[in-house]
Amino acid sequence: MSRNIRKILESNRSKRDRELIISDENIGSLTELPGICSFTHLTRLNLSHNRLDELDPNIFSLSNLEYLNVFNNNLEELPGELRDIPKLRELNAGLNRLVQLPRGFGSCPSLQVLDLTYNNLTNGSFPGNFKYLGGTLRALFLGDNELLSVPLEIGTFLKLEVLVLRDNNIRDVPVDIGRLPKLKELHLNGNQIHILPPDLGLLDFSNPEKSFFRVFDNPLIDPLREQCESMKNNTDLFVKYLKSPQYLEVYTLYTIGVKKGNFPPLLKRDRSGKKSRKTPKFKPVEFGPLAFGAGVGDITPGDM
Amino acid sequence: MSIITDTARCSLCKEMFQASEKLINSGGEVWHEKCFVCVQCFQPFPDGLFYESDGRKYCEHDFQMLFSPVCHKCNKFISGRVIRAIGHPWHPDCFRCVWCDQSLADVGFVKFQGQPLCKACNTLVKQSGKHLCQICFKPIEDEPLFHMNMVVHPHHFNCFKCKKPLETMSKLHCGELVCIRCYDKMEASICVACRRPIEGRIVHANAQTWHPEHFVCAYCEKPFEGQKHYEKKGLAYCEPHYNQLYGEICFYCNNHVIKDVVNVLCKSWCVGHFRCTACDVLLALKGNSKFIFYDNRPLCRKCYDRLPQEFRRRLKRMDELKK
Ligand SMILES: [Zn+2]
Ligand SMILES: [Zn+2]
Ligand SMILES: [Zn+2]
Ligand SMILES: [Zn+2]
Ligand SMILES: [Zn+2]
Ligand SMILES: [Zn+2]
Ligand SMILES: [Zn+2]
Ligand SMILES: [Zn+2]
Asked: From which domain of life does this come (chain A) (predicted)?
């Protein structure tokens, strides 16, 4: 343990400082921070930019922790004990090598902000009880993962304000997203989306300063792509277009009508350079028709 | 005396005189003392002075009452020279220019707004466009008061509130004239909610005044009763309703931002909660400490440089695609 770390720990312990930041200190394991799991006075712990490849399950003894930041480490998994930290409101585990979320993770009682950006998560990575986070979660960051579709039961995340699904391999946008009453930010860019359900027109994106909707960099059908381009950043106008009779006609045409499935080709993307993939456990879902056939069902018109 | 008494008869009653009786002789006619009186009031003439009209004798008072002109200026009877002008009689000394007070009895005059002016003043008044007060007929130097269909000096009226003569500026308040000072005070103490004057405690807020019981949240209409209120667009709200309608919720603490708010990336933060997403360093909007963002989350420069090169390349490409 470096003298610097010892000083930081001692100072924190003696002052009972509720905030501890050990960022960019080349920490490879929590054992390099002796006694850290007994720092029950902590409400914020930041271990970002280190080399951690696992978190000590004893972390759950930090009973007052509200904020845990392990951004940019080498974590391949998270301890299931996180669910036993009663006040944990925000978890930033972005930029790691996560392949799986621990079983029972959905029962984290207070989680409001969950950042899993830039990992190796696939549709199979979520525990069965993930939906129960819907009772508290305000923001879900899943950009730069390996999702083939939006995680199931997103419609139960009624408190969700921010949903980031940027840069995955998602083709199908569930109609349920249009019924998330508080959703103000929806990042869908960098996927394989052809068409958007008219139900997204139900979202209230009328306040331009507080709403955000990105769907560029997708193989959108021409009418959508044109609208998207002509309306640029006017999220409100775009959403209004989605619920217009004019778009309903387009949508019907491409989903059950004469143009059914007449979609532009998927976009080629090379994500082999992703840092998170440098893990033996990760087997990339190869990009191709087979993989999609397995991950996405036929697109059917939503209940409109 | 006795010879007359034997033959003469009273001019008024035509009766004979008694031998011892006092008789009054005037202008070749004689009267009983009791008959030599004013035909109007039947009283003897004071100092023997009487006035005749149509052969009938009057005391001075009744003669003037019945036949004398009354001066339009001083309201007294005019005996002697009468000036008749502008439809009224005047004492020569009372007929003066209403502006400069010069006597007009022997010089020409001009009728202006029903009042006499000397020629010089008439020219001046016409040039200045001033009004003549319809009460004192003096020109109105400052702002005239238009009241009861008259143009008058304000000082002829008293303030309804303080009873002092009105000054130049005055206002109508509920149909009553009040001076500008009292008006300001009254206006300041009118409850903007019920429009009635405030007698007791006054709540000042938003540059307006309220009865304490009428100073309420614009949303729930409950009185603040001394509790803190928040103002927006000229309306006052209680804290929960201000927050409900206009409050910014901090993305980090999920509470209403009480003081300064950081509004960027479609979200709001308490100033103390606007931190780098990765390393927690406090970010400032002002100054040189610029931040970079991805997924609408802020990153400090140092943390951005620590992102995988591959990711940073894509962020740049995303930026270009957005445009
Ligand atoms: Zn008389
Ligand atoms: Zn004059
Ligand atoms: Zn006057
Ligand atoms: Zn007054
Ligand atoms: Zn009132
Ligand atoms: Zn209220
Ligand atoms: Zn805050
Ligand atoms: Zn940082």
From this structure: Eukaryota
